[in-house]
Design brief:
This protein has helices at residues 57-63, 115-126, 163-168, 175-178, 238-247, 261-267, 296-304, 308-316, 345-354, 384-398, 411-419, 439-442, 460-470, 475-492, and strands at 8-9, 37-42, 71-73, 80-82, 85-90, 96-101, 141-148, 151-156, 200-206, 210-215, 229-234, 252-253, 271-276, 280-286, 320-322, 367-368, 371-372, 374-380, 403-409, 425-431, 495-501, 503-508, 511-512, 529-530. It has three domains: 1-64 and 198-276 and 503-533, Periplasmic binding protein-like II (D-Maltodextrin-Binding Protein, domain 2, 3-Layer(aba) Sandwich), CATH 3.40.190; 67-181, Dipeptide-binding Protein, Domain 1 (Dipeptide-binding Protein, domain 1); 280-501, Dipeptide-binding Protein, domain 3 (Roll). Helix 13 packs antiparallel against helix 14 (475-492). A hairpin with a 2-residue loop joins strand 7 and strand 8 (151-156). It is built from 14 helices and 24 strands. By secondary structure, the chain is of the alpha+beta class. It is globular, with a radius of gyration of 24 Å. The two termini are 36 Å apart. The longest helix is centred in the last third of the chain and has 18 residues, at 475-492.
């Protein structure tokens, strides 16, 4: 998935040790010397680093270090800076969008990057055989044409506010690669076999263990990257990562457990805690296609029986707010007026009784038609907060007579299960799109293979209102419609929305020029430095 047009499943990345020396001066040309090995600890393996073949949120952060996009989205989610494209302009009627490309970008196999690559990338993105997960973002773009080697024109069939965002979503890939293999196989090609043009390239990838990125020597910004290498090391245990951070082995760790922040500040002055607004929310997803969860009344009762504030207090230590929307507060379309469903387990029992769930055999568990109210709640192994949520929810629902069996899976196994909607309920997270469009997750058409509506939710009114709002150029006119959509979704509780967390990342103070934002913690990794310069 992509940051604007799609919402990503969140992989809580961790970061490990840097073993390199500091910067010690400049080269004879006055450029900073390339120094430093940053080892970044990851709690989960990458699903894929092929931009056409992954829905992994953190993988997206990494492949964008290897493949250039036309423009770079900024932290306000509304503006962009040049990247592969030097500049752009719309036609008077906004139906044509022209990009003027750099002429000094070279693929890692030596072939120059041109507008023909832009055209070929679009054709692959739109090709139904490729099954690119963000294909819907290009729905209103009829074609892309290379006018010359360094000019690409996007032809739109509709005028709407996110034309630029949709056009630049997804990295540009090489035409000579895309045309060399069948469309149906593009997604499956290992990232190591892909020509790249970004600041980093893959040096070595040992699946399940580590990924090493090295500077790409022909990258167009000649001084960058400033680091010698970045190593992403897979350590599927948060406690081990924290231990290494405290012992001095770890320089940088993403998604610090909130309960550890105070201790780190008190005992590790060499470590800086970087906290900023997040676009990530945690939720319990009820499979709306399962008989237990097909009723919105039942889903609301379950939410009523779950003490969300207690979860926030116990697990986030104040670094979160209760979630009431599929948007997050830092997005312009967020509805701040939705009142959370109250925590009221007694009322939840009454509601469930009205749905036929009672303890008919007096064994302590609710049942209906002889079937116990019992289900499996799954999440990914290694994410301690999600596992703690499982345990707390298990106990809260036990108190009203619902039996919850908890299970954890390795990330890729977990992802396979939820992609196939092969679950009853899950604890998961979304990194919310920076584009106000709920269709990727909530539209009826987003159900099934390749879609992100893994809980099988469908409401035609939600689809209609969202589509209408997405087509409005005036955001103020669109707001009331988006507000109404959020109210409907929250009323129906296809998720129990838990909380929106603050980003909490730890970084050793030897690193300079680190500029994390809600788009990505690593968006400017090629500019990170070691030392005092």
């Amino acid at each position: 998935m992509h940051s604007r047009g799609i919402i990503f499943h969140l992989l809580f990345g961790m970061a490990l040790v840097s073993v390199a020396a500091s910067f010690t001066g400049c080269s004879r040309e006055g450029r900073p010397r390339r120094r430093g090995t940053l080892v970044i600890g990851e709690i989960s393996n990458f699903e894929s680093l092929n931009p056409m073949g992954t829905t992994d949120a953190h993988a997206r952060d990494i492949y964008k270090l290897m493949f250039l996009t036309l423009l770079v989205e900024q932290g306000d989610f509304l503006t962009f800076t040049p990247r592969l494209a030097r500049s752009y302009e719309f036609s008077g009627d906004r139906k044509l969008l022209t990009f003027h490309l750099r002429d000094d970008v070279v693929w890692s196999d030596g072939i120059r990057c041109t507008a023909h690559d832009v055209e070929a990338t679009f054709m692959a993105q739109k090709d139904p055989e490729v099954l690119w997960s963000s294909r819907h973002l290009k729905e209103y773009i009829d074609s892309v044409r290379a006018i010359d080697d360094y000019t690409a024109v996007y032809y739109f069939n509709r005028v709407y506010p996110y034309q630029l965002m949709d056009a630049v979503d997804g990295p540009i890939m090489p035409k000579h690669f895309l045309e060399s293999i069948p469309a149906g196989e593009i997604r499956m090609i290992p990232a190591e076999d892909l020509p790249t043009n970004g600041p980093f390239r893959i040096g070595e990838w040992i699946r399940g263990q580590s990924l090493t990125l090295l500077p790409y020597d022909r990258y167009y910004e000649k001084d960058k990257p400033y680091l010698e290498r970045a190593i992403f090391k897979i350590i599927p245990d948060q406690v081990t990562l924290l231990t290494q951070l405290r012992s001095g082995e770890i320089d940088c760790m993403e998604s610090i457990p909130p309960g550890e922040v105070g201790s780190l500040k008190d005992n590790n002055p060499e470590i800086e805690i970087l906290s900023y607004p997040s676009r990530v929310y945690i939720y319990i997803g009820w499979n709306n296609g399962h008989p237990l969860f097909e009723s919105r009344t039942v889903r609301r009762a379950l939410t009523m029986a779950i003490d969300r504030k207690l979860i926030i207090d116990n697990l986030r230590f104040g670094y979160a707010e209760e979630c009431t929307s599929p948007f997050v507060p830092i997005l312009w379309a967020y509805n701040p007026g939705i009142e959370p469903i109250p925590f009221d387990p007694e009322r939840a029992v009454e509601i469930l009784a009205g749905e036929g769930f009672t303890d008919s055999d007096m064994d302590g568990w609710l049942d209906r038609n002889g079937e116990r109210f019992e289900f499996e709640l799954i999440t990914n192994y290694g994410n301690q907060i999600r596992m703690d949520v499982q345990v707390m929810v298990q106990e809260m629902l036990r108190k009203i007579g619902i039996k919850v069996n908890i299970e954890q899976f390795e990330w890729t196994v977990f992802l396979d299960r939820i992609k196939a909607s092969d679950f009853e309920a899950m604890v998961n997270a979304w990194r919310v799109s920076t584009k106000a469009d709920l269709s990727p997750i909530w539209a009826c058409k987003a159900r099934g293979p390749g879609g992100y509506n893994r809980i099988n939710y469908c409401n035609a009114v939600v689809d209609s209102l969202n589509d209408l709002a997405c087509g409005m150029l005036d955001f103020e006119e669109a707001k009331p419609l988006f507000f109404q959509v959020q109210e409907i979704i929250y009323e129906e509780q296809p998720y129990t929305f838990l909380y929106v967390g603050h980003a909490l990342n730890a970084l050793h103070r030897r690193y300079r020029n680190v500029k994390p934002n809600a788009v990505s913690f690593y968006h400017n990794l090629h500019e990170w430095r070691v030392g005092d310069e």
